[in-house]
Amino acid sequence: MSNTHSFTIRSSNSTDVSAIFSLIQALAEYEKLSHAVTGSAERLEEHLFGSRPCVEAIVAQSSDQIVGFALFFSNYSTFLTKPGLYLEDLFVLPDYRSKGIGKALLAHLAQLALFRDCGRLEWSVLDWNEPAIAFYQRMGATVLPDWQICRVTGAAIAKLANENS
After folding, report:
1. What domains can you pick out in the chain, each with its CATH number?
2. Do 87 and 75 meet the contact criterion of CB atoms below 8 Å apart?
3. Which of 8, 29, 63, 86 has the greatest CB tally within 10 Å of its CB?
């Protein structure tokens, strides 16, 4: 594939959901986490476009194919007393990498963060994913060495919820 391939970045719509979910599955395969994908395109559609949307997505489209996406949601910084954007996932199909698509997706999110007066645009990256870390650093991101992600899932959520019962 040539480097002259054109693409557009745009907000997702409901007709993009199956393509986005396929990209989520491709991302999980890349991260060797396919077993962790237990969701569905139907639930993704509800969360993107249902009565109470809780995430947003932008897509990279080349011709009539969705070749990349960024899924994000609002968060908040108590120290800055400002909203922020949290990038949950960014993925570009392998054949479309090194064409500026990832950079364009991040730039679009940065523009959105400025428009919404956000204090932060942040995300996590797996520590073994050196190509992604290098890319993010080239884009101006600081990888925070002193912070660790804390996560409670599944039965542990129910157990924690019952701690004060």
Report:
1. 8-161 (3.40.630.30)
2. no
3. 86
Can you point out the beta strands (E) in 63-141? 65-77, 82-92, 120-123
Percentage of the chain with pLDDT > 70? 97
Task: For residue 136, indicate whether it is catalytic.
Answer: yes
First to last CA, the chain: 59
Task: Determine the average pLDDT of the residues in 44-51.
Answer: 98
Mean pLDDT along residues 144-164:
90
CB 102 within 8 A of CB 138: no
Q: Which of 124, 85, 128, 127 is nearest to 107 (CA)?
A: 85
pLDDT of residue 114: 97
Which segments of the chain are extended strands (E)?
8-11, 56-62, 65-77, 82-92, 120-123
CA angle at 38 for the pair 110 and 13, rounded to the nearest 5°? 40
Both structure tokens of 146:
């002193």
Task: Give yes or no for a contact between 7 and 104, defined as CB atoms under 8 angstroms apart.
Answer: yes
- How many residues can be counted in the chain? 165
Q: Tokens 């947003």 map to which residue?
A: 56
Q: Considering only 3-7, 72-76, 85-89, 100-104, which range has the smallest mean pLDDT?
A: 3-7
